[in-house]
Amino acid sequence: MNERTFNNEKDMLQGNIARLSISKDLDELERMRYWAHRRIDMIADAKIQQVRNEDHRNTQCEVKCCEE
Q: What's the CA gap between 33 and 39, in Å, rounded?
């Protein structure tokens, strides 16, 4: 997930939370809960992948530096 998509999902999540806070429509509440959960998963997965990639790059650099 690129940074623009990541930020868009965070903004959309805030919108879901706002609707959950004010809506009295049960169908809308269920939809907002579903999308909020889904967006949290997408955001978390993207961040986890980013950290893993950074750790992998750092490990590769440490190995190369030690080999020299």
A: 10
- Taking CA atoms, 11 is separated from 6, 39, 41, 62, 67, in Å, by 9, 10, 14, 37, 45
* 9-65 tens-digit pLDDT: 999 999 999 999 999 999 999 999 999 999 999 999 999 999 999 998 888 776 666
Cβ 32 vs Cβ 23: under 8 Å? yes
Instruction: Give the chain's radius of gyration (CA, Å).
Output: 18
User: What is d(CA 51, CA 25) in angstroms, rounded to the nearest whole number?
Assistant: 39
Burial class (CB in 10 A: 0-12, 13-18, 19+), 16: buried
> Cα 41–42–46 angle (5° rounding)?
115
